[in-house]
Structures are given as C-alpha cells and as structure tokens.
Amino acid sequence: MDDITGSGDDARRSEGAPSSDGRSLQSRLLFLVVGAVAVAIAYFVGGAVLPRWWAQRVSDVTDGRLIFGNMLGFVSGFVFTVLPLFVLAVGWRLRKSWKRALLFLAAAFMVATPNLLTLGIVLGNGDAAHAGERILDVDGPGFRGGSLVGAVVGASCAVALLWLIGSRRRNKQKASDLKSELENRS
C-alpha cells in the first residue's frame, strides 16, 4: 500500500500539484502577473486622478489663505516625513524576515502618502499634475513651499533624534561593560 501512495505522490508532484509549501508554481506565477497588472493599472489611474484630487482637498482646507497654506504645508511636510522615518527605524530594529521588512516598508509608504501626493504634483508632468499645480497656485498658496520646508526640518529632526537614541544606547552599553570590568578587577 505504501508503494501505491508513494507513486501517486510522485505523479501529483510532476503534474504541477502543490509544492511542499502548499502552492503550485502556476498559482505563484498567476499571482505575480495579476499583481503586476493591478499595480500598473493603479499607477496610471492614480497618475490621472490623484494629483488633482489632492490639490482640491488641500485647497478646500486652505481656502486661498497664504499663511494658513504655509502652516498647513509645514505641518504636513514635518509630520509625514518624521512618521515614515520612525516606522522605517522601528522596522529596521524589528526585522526578522523579508516579509516583515516589506510590511514595515509598505506602512512607511502609506504614512508618507500626503508628501508623496504633493511631490507628484510638483514633479509630475501629466495633465492632472499641471491641474493640481494651478489649483494650489490659486486656492492653496504656500502649501508646496511649506511642505518642502517641513519635510527638510522633519528629516533633520528625525535623523538627529535617531542619532541621539543610538548614542544613548551605545553609552549605556559602554557603561555596563566598564562596570562589569570594574567588578571583575575587584
């Protein structure tokens, strides 16, 4: 009976049945192709819609007020630069597998979305990006410049804080090593 089931297992494996981890090569390939097509469609639809939509949301909030546009841009640039950098820093410390690292990378990307949308308006060359620029020029003045300044200040603060945290950790370790060396000498 073992011979019959053994030959049946070999036959199933050779016909593209699930591999040792439960998925067949064909289903993985299909998943990758469908995923690539979905990403491509999202990219083109997003490029045609999102810059204009984001500019309209910003202009609804700022309502043509220059100072408020600058302040909102600064806060947006600062917060949505600092948060993704800290998500990446936490992900770096907690990484155990490439899947977990990709999860933290995706989370950082999601948190940085407002800055990425603004960057898409500034650097984009499509019709939606140009429409977004015009909308922000008229109804959201100061937002793009404030966002840039906020992103630079936020990145500087995040790097400085991460350096301070790292130096504190190194100093604690050094103090612990020196204390144990002192105890060993006594």
Count of helical regions: 7
Structural class: mainly alpha
Largest sheet, if any? none
Provide the helix percentage.
Answer: over 70%
Hey, roughly how much beta strand do the residues contain?
under 5%
H-E string: HHHHHHH
Report the end-to-end length measured between terminal Cα atoms: 72 Å
Mean pLDDT across all residues, rounded?
87
Assembly type: single chain
Could you characterize what this model shows?
This protein is mainly α and 186 residues long. The protein has one domain. 87% of the residues lie in helices and 0% in strands. The chain has seven helices and no strands. Helix 2 runs antiparallel to helix 3 and helix 2 packs across helix 5. The longest helix has 43 residues. The radius of gyration is 26 Å and the shape is flat. The N and C termini lie far apart (72 Å). The relative contact order is 0.13. The model has no long low-confidence stretch (mean pLDDT 87).
Features:
single chain, 186 residues, mainly alpha
What's the short story on this structure?
The protein is an all-alpha fold. Helix content is about 85%, strand content about 0%. The protein has helices at about 1-15, 25-60, 65-95, 100-110, 115-125, 125-140, 145-185.
